[in-house]
Design a protein that fits this description.
By secondary structure, this protein is α/β, with parallel strands linked by helices. It has 6 helices and 5 strands, in the order E-H-E-H-E-H-E-H-E-H-H. The protein has a 5-stranded parallel sheet with strand order 2-1-3-4-5, sandwiched between helices. Strand 3, helix 3 and strand 4 form a beta-alpha-beta unit. Helix 1 runs parallel beside helix 5 and helix 5 packs across helix 6. The longest helix is centred in the C-terminal third of the chain and has 24 residues. The termini are far apart. The protein binds 5-O-phosphono-beta-D-ribofuranose. The site of 5-O-phosphono-beta-D-ribofuranose (RP5) has 10 residues, from strand 3.
């Protein structure tokens, strides 16, 4: 487990039940050579821990927070309200919820002045949260910017090859 003091990216999720989907986010960051700090913190069930995490994140050296939750997903917003770090919100389709639409609206509809960069629901969003975090970090990191360019080239190549294969 990587400490919050030794990585630029923290992934926070509302429940251990979110882990399955958020593994795609962890793996994508690892592919870029970033080992994220991973925490389970609930805006509703452990609000004090959420506040403490947000208050200390920048001091600990975190540069980007990825916050994932399902149902009435207030985690990303609650963290964003207590930090000036960029917060990326991943809405999840939790069991017993509304297929992620509940989480999407709860995450994306932030009041003016407190943005949460909200990505797609579920696995695609989890992966994109990692890529977006890398894009933010790459602004000040040439090595990472190179890896990002290679990643984009590789995914373009895949599409072009598929296109050629059906001609
Ligand atoms: C949210 O409620 C969590 O992020 C999770 O997606 C959902 C359900 O949590 P559990 O009841 O599975 O712990 O806060």
């Amino acid at each position: 487990m990587v400490s919050e003091k030794s990585t630029p990216v923290a992934i926070v999720m509302g429940s251990h039940s979110d882990m399955d989907v958020m593994k795609s986010c962890i793996r994508q960051l690892e592919d870029f050579g970033i080992e994220p700090a991973v925490r389970i913190i609930s805006a509703h069930r452990t609000p004090d821990v959420a506040a403490q995490f947000a208050d200390n994140a920048a001091k600990n050296g975190i540069k980007v927070i990825i916050a994932a939750a399902g149902m009435a997903a207030h985690l990303a917003g609650a963290l964003a309200g207590r930090t000036t770090l960029p917060v990326i919100g991943v809405p999840l389709a939790a069991k017993g919820g509304l297929d992620g639409i509940d989480a999407l609206l709860s995450t994306v509809q932030m009041p003016p002045g407190v943005p949460v960069a909200t990505v797609a629901i579920g696995k695609a969003g989890a992966k994109n949260a990692a890529v977006l975090a890398v894009q933010i970090l790459a602004l000040g990191d040439e090595k990472l910017a190179k890896k990002l360019a290679q990643f984009k080239d590789a995914q373009a190549k895949k599409v072009i090859e598929k296109d050629a294969s059906i001609q």
